[in-house]
Automatic annotation (TrEMBL):
One Pfam family matching this protein: Aminotran_3
Protein name: Glutamate-1-semialdehyde 2,1-aminomutase
Location of this chain's protein in the cell: Cytoplasm
Major location category of this protein: cytoplasm
Example of a GO cellular component annotation carried by this entry: cytoplasm
Enzyme Commission no: 5.4.3.8
CDD domains registered for this protein in UniProt: OAT_like
SUPFAM superfamilies hit by this protein: PLP-dependent transferases (SSF53383)
Reaction(s) the record says it catalyses: (S)-4-amino-5-oxopentanoate = 5-aminolevulinate
Gene: hemL
Cofactor section: pyridoxal 5'-phosphate
Organism expressing this protein natively: Fusobacterium necrogenes
Amino acid sequence: MNHKISKEIFKKAQKYIPGGVNSPVRAFKSVSREAPIFACKGEGAKIWDEDGNEYIDYICSWGPLILGHNHPKIIAGVRDAIELGSSFGLPTKKEVELAELITKCCPSIEMVRLTTSGTEATMSAVRLARAYTNRNKIAKFEGCYHGHSDALLVKSGSGLLTDGYQDSNGITEGVLKDTITIPFGNLKELNNILEKKNIACLIMEPVPANMGVIYPDVEFLKAVRELCTKTGTLLIFDEVISGFRLALGGAQEYFGITPDMTTLGKIIGGGYPVGAFGGKSEIMQLVAPMGRVYHAGTLSGNPIAVRAGYEMLTYLDENKETLYKELEDKVKYITKEAKKSAEKYGVNVVINSIGSLFTVFFTDKKEINNLKDALSSNTENFAIYFNTMLENGIICPPSQFEAHFVSIAHTQEILDKTLKVIDMAFKTIGEKNEK
């Protein structure tokens, strides 16, 4: 494939944008690329770059495009909304309809506040938890990424892991002291911390997907819920990725566990900028103007994003009986066949999957259950995998520590083509390992 134009754009971008990108993982640094590809168009399960190359897309804008790119229902709604105006700085009827739909789909959410991003949603939820409990400290699990607000960047995942570190510079000592981190799955350590009864909230991805996909132990999740209730610690499920991806009600429906608050993003805007935090009414009533926990935003509830989200969630609600099983079956098929290819060429992998997400970990370990396990991965082998896929028309997340996303637009033909290229990648890795 020729990437001449993308390289030229990247060279120019580096003069005006730090690192040439507006989100670190997009730089393709960890997969040994001279430059990222610059996308220009998407349709169904495919995207095209500025050089005219066509790719099957397993990034899906990091999750929200569960219906694929430019789904007709969403595009029609967005066109209608654009013609009425781009932004008002005033409430609109559709905001109320989207909020009602979110509360219908997520039983744990009685009231919801819209934001412009998942980062804003998690930041606001934590602030609200501190106000509700009158406690300052918060707890999170190592390797879970909850956006780039100061308190939640401590021992984080996603782009930080991709670049080989877990904390960001610029965070004050006080913030570091107020954020307690625990290895994912370590109930004993979590119990020791929460028993002190000075933790405002535990924020967690019920399905970690920012150190690669981790399939959680259901009994662990139940124990976490019980422990938070016992100690008066608010349990916040960060479902920015898992929300509406595993089931209509997210991971909380999938596992049957009810958090006190939930954060959402990405998918509730159908691919347009949006986020939300919500929960029990008695907690949410502390948010201004009802209470004194301040949250505001000119573009919160932007009419175009709201319309896209309404069309998205309506479609998911109307098709939930078949859509989620279809997605899960697609992922089971591709991961089962990929494991066969890995065995054929003697490539050590662990492939974790749940719902419409999966991650291929290149590791000698038998299981990947937490950050320590994930960090055992051979990133050199992942780079070979990524580049083989890319040069053969398939774009995957440019990081070992992210999830692949499947949409309803990924047909059987597309899955079979993907598996042929995965086989090529594993063959190349196997031959390298033999030398």
